[in-house]
Amino acid sequence: MNETVISVRNLTKCFGSFTAVNGISFDVHKGEIFGFLGANGAGKTTAMRMLCGLSYPTRGSGTVAGFDITREGEQIKRHIGYMSQRFSLYNDLTIWENMQLFAGIYGLTKKDTDERAKVLLERLDFFSERNTLVGSLPLGWKQKLAFAIATIHRPDVVFLDEPTGGVDPMTRRQFWELIYEAAESGTTIFVTTHYMDEAEYCSRVSIMVDGEVRALDTPTRLKEQFAAESMDEVFRTLARGAKREEQ
Amino acid sequence: MHAIEVENLSKSYGKVKALDAASFAVRNGELFGLIGPDGAGKSTLFRLLTTLLTPESGKATVNGLDTVKDYIAIRSRIGYMPGKFSLYPDLTVEENLEFFAALFGVTLEESYDLIEPIYKQIEPFKERAAGKLSGGMKQKLALSCALIHRPGILFLDEPTTGVDAVSRSEFWDMLSGLKERGITILVSTPYMDEASRCDRIALINEGHILGVDTPQGIVDGFRSPLYSIRSRHVFALLNAARQQEGVLECYPFGESHHMITDSAFTKERFMKAMSGFKDLEVKEIEPTIEDMFIKLMKR
Q1: Chain A residue closest to B258 (CA)?
Q2: pLDDT digits (tens, 9 = 90+) for B170-208
């Protein structure tokens, strides 16, 4: 049950004399929805880049989906999915073309691609719209589609970078239902956000301040620990002590 | 007279109706929030009120002045902070301020007392190019520039989007300070949890105003019994709860799910039917602005 999918020990990244990430250690388990929080400039992006095999640690070690982050970055990239709020899909390609493109990049066969794309689109009730240009879709649809595409190669872990900022409250619920469903079927979800109400949806949450993980627990226990009503209050208590200026 | 009056205001871009017969009024001295997701029509409404667009139909006044006929008079009386950072990135902090002061025929010294609480936080960096500032500092500079000519009404389009929780909270504190100086503020946000910082709010979605009231008044309009339910088996719980008698809606809401019920619902029967969830917790709760928004969207 408690199979570890992400494990990092003393992970550190320096840029010259600046220590962006300073000795962080944590484990993420299979099927968990793990919230990775921090103020602007706390080191979240740098840490996530190392987990995705895009940047090497200066010190420390870690594995993602069973691969070493210092030696097996290419393998990691094949076994993870990534979705960001800013860049997700190509607006001038159709829904179907976007799916073909990303599945192709991950090396899926044409047969597997078509089968999986159909299942994913039917699940979203989008199949009849598959020839629509992505650029003409409402934001909420794009986000749901981006999530589906980030899972088309059945990754062990999906990294979500502020997935539901600005989306209407109903679409946002539908989005979280997709995430719950994926988590229940064993996909691990790693979410970064600085919107604290998104943090409340996570199984466990870590909070980074000045390059270090200062808190890590379930939202309920963090609220108890800091005698706070909401995750927003927990976050503000921790982040107010930040010494580092945001980038 | 209201500071802002909007009557049946509509605007389309091609086939897309960005704003559809919106009506509401903002009182003098009010901190008024326009709350809705991306694509709701918030920025279009701001551009209409700041005279940067003309409406397709309907009418709006700012300080009693018509946004179409009296656009020149309106422009010197309002401050506008657009959603996108729109200052000159290659001018320094101080140069940007002086530039906007010159445009409005005022000086930094004349307005210093008004912008001081905000500007003094970035004054140590006044020699820095605006493009090199952090997100929170850019926001403070943009607000200082929007205030330089002592406008009576401030229009702030999504000032807290993309800003971390600490800076967001500080920003709302600054707005409360400006309100105390008598400035009317219309501010938009996609984040429902910021509603409580406003005197009154309008909920907006797909070009329609869904409701206008105080944050408490909006929530008081909910009326259906609302429950919070939780279990470790998050996804299974959601699907099981939807099958139960008297459950109108069940949706994820952070650590728990919220469940809207009708008169056919009893907690006892629900607990019994759901006894397969050993760790089930059920409690009746007060709705939030977000619950009300979901309810109004379904109407």
Answers
A1: A173
A2: 999 999 999 999 999 999 999 888 999 999 999 999 999
